[in-house]
Design a protein that fits this description.
four-stranded antiparallel β-sheet; single chain
Length: 452
Amino acid sequence: MLAALLLAQILQPVRPVEPPARSSIREPLPAPVPEAPPEGPVLPLAEALAQLRDRSPDLAVALERVTQAQNNVQRAWATVQPTLTATGTVTHNSYSGAYIDYSRLSITSTGPNTQSAAINFNWNIFNYRAVPALQTAYQQVEVARLTETQQRRELLLDVASTYYAGLALKELAAVAARQAKATRDHAIEAQARYEAGLIQLSAALRARIDYLRADQETRRAQFNYAASRSQLAALLDRRDTAFELAPPAQPPEEIRGAFKDLIAKALEERPEMAAARANEEIAARLKTDAWAQFLPSLALTANARYNHPVAASTIDASTWAFALTITLPIYDGGFRYVALKDADSQMRQARAQTRSEASRIEDELRRAQLDLESARALRDEAEQALAASRENERLVRAQFAAGTASQVEVSDAEAALFQSESTALQQRLSVQIAALRVAKAVGAFDLPEAAK
């Protein structure tokens, strides 16, 4: 008899629960965020890098600076090439001129109009200052090309990093959408269990809150992915975001090697170092230019003139003359000595800048290697944490269905799973970007077709 009473208490019939009148549990669950439709065809990473080369305004500015440096070479040559100038003048006077012709003992009127023409030729035959000026002009073209190469690599790295970041955001949006669907199904189940009187109202509300938060994460990830595509479009000088991102067929190559070997390669191949060494040579050439100011210069000038009417002091209407002029600067107020001191200062400055550039490259490579090693280790740990979070989430859900786990435990398991998936995505992205930064630090990150 006692056993029958205990069994009756255990198997009591389920009594439906009516939610409170003003409880938010009565509101229907919002529909999950729909998957964003593709806005255009896939833009592969290789094509994005090629578009950067063709469209980037920053790269166009760097290329124009190369052209301007080439124009400076022509300006330097112009200082040693001869010049030829022609002038002509027609004058109408308010009076008529006259002159005495002594051969005829008569006065001849020239009328109110006069005409004259002249041709002047000038050639600096010897001016030693033109030699260092020409050498510097040619070397500045090289520096401009090296600067353009550096900026191109920086822009390529920015595009690749932005592309990989966009891919991670796209995958994160998919993860958030799956998480939102799972939490919505659980919220529906929790509400049904509450209405059946199996769990408390707070547990059903907690499940609903978890879904709403997951739905918010989905929307946030979708907006962030759209923002990353807008950022990529700005780098490519596009006025639209009608494209999608897709993982490259091959991940970025990871450059491995001993630090001393990689730093030697970087100091040899980085365009910044080559430009710094070229600037040292340009600064050293200032000393040559300063000493050249003590040397004489030689110039040839010639001119031819025509006057009508013929002046009384001349016999012919046309005259010509030429002169060979040598100029020796004796004292210029000390300007040349100041130029020598300034050349020494410029040389010391250029050497210091080269040492600073070498230190910066060494630090950049060292930190890039450390970032890559750290990203690999953190990625492996994140993958392990993700596997454990997935297993934990499955177990807690099964326990909740069996009535041995609370809604708080389910919420914690879902939050831990989403956090683990997000962290795993971020660490995979960190490895890819760190590999790109190592390649750039070594001087190996570039497009073959973009090389100039």
